[in-house]
Amino acid sequence: MDIINLDIPGCFLVTPKIISDERGHFVKVYKESDFYRAGIEFKFEEEYYSVSNQGVIRGMHFQVPPHDHCKMVYCPKGAVFDAFVDLRKGSPTYLESRCTQLTEVNGGILILAKGIAHGFCSLEDGTVMVYKTTSEYQPSGDCGVLWDSCGIQWPAIMNAKSLSDRDKSFPALKVFESPFVLK
Fold it and tell me: Residues 89-99, buried b or exposed e (16+ Cβ, 10 A)?
C-alpha cells in the first residue's frame, strides 16, 4: 500500500496493491498500521455506497460541525472523475480544488480531512463509489456548495440534468460562509 500526502493538508491518495489472476482481482483498501504510519488516525462510524450512470455528478458534499467528518472514498466498479475543495479558513489551499480519477483498475483511494467538500462525475454506467466516514450522517449537518462554482473543469460527458434537486440548491462557493478552520 502506497500512501501519498496530497498538497491539501490532511488529504491523502492511497494506492493499494492489486493482486490479479485469471479469477479476477483482490484489493486491500484499509490496513490500520499502514494508515497510522502515514499519520492517518480515525475510527469509521458509517459506510455507504452509490451507483451512478455515466455523466452523473454528485457533489460537492460535506457535513458541517459538529457533525463534520473525515472521509475515505474509492471506486471498486467503473470509474469517476473525483473532485474536492478545501473549505478550511487558514489553510494554505483554502478554496482551492483538486481532481483525480478513481477507477476499479487503478484502485485509488482518497482520504479527505474534515472541511473538504467532495464530489464526482461518473465516467461509466453502473459506477460504484464507496464512502467510509468518521461520523454518522446527520440531516442537520448536511451541506454542500454548487458543483460548478469551484473552478473545476468537469469532464465533457457530465450531465447537469442528472443532478439531484439537493445538489442544484447548494450555494455558490464564493457566497458560502465556511464554518471550517484548519487546526
Answer: eebebbbebbe
Least confident of 13-27, 64-78, 156-170: 156-170
Structural domains in the chain (count): 1
Q: In sequence order, what are the residues at sequence separation of 6 or more whose Cβ sits closer than 8 angstroms to the Cβ of residue 175?
A: none
Q: pLDDT-derived band of residue 94, with 50, 70 and 90 as boundaries?
A: very high
Residue with the three cell numbers 487546526: 183
The H or E element spanning position 169 is: helix 165-169
Which pLDDT belongs to residue 183?
84
Is residue 6 assigned to a domain?
A: yes
| Rg, the chain, Cα only | 16
Q: Any bridge partners for residue 120, and if so which?
A: 58, 82
In a domain, 123, yes or no: yes
pLDDT digits (tens, 9 = 90+) for 18-30: 999 999 999 999 9
Q: How many CB atoms are closer than 10 A to CB 86?
A: 26
Q: If you write DSSP's letter for every residue of 30-51 in order, what string do you get?
A: --HHHHHHTT------EEEEEE
Catalytic machinery residues: 61, 131
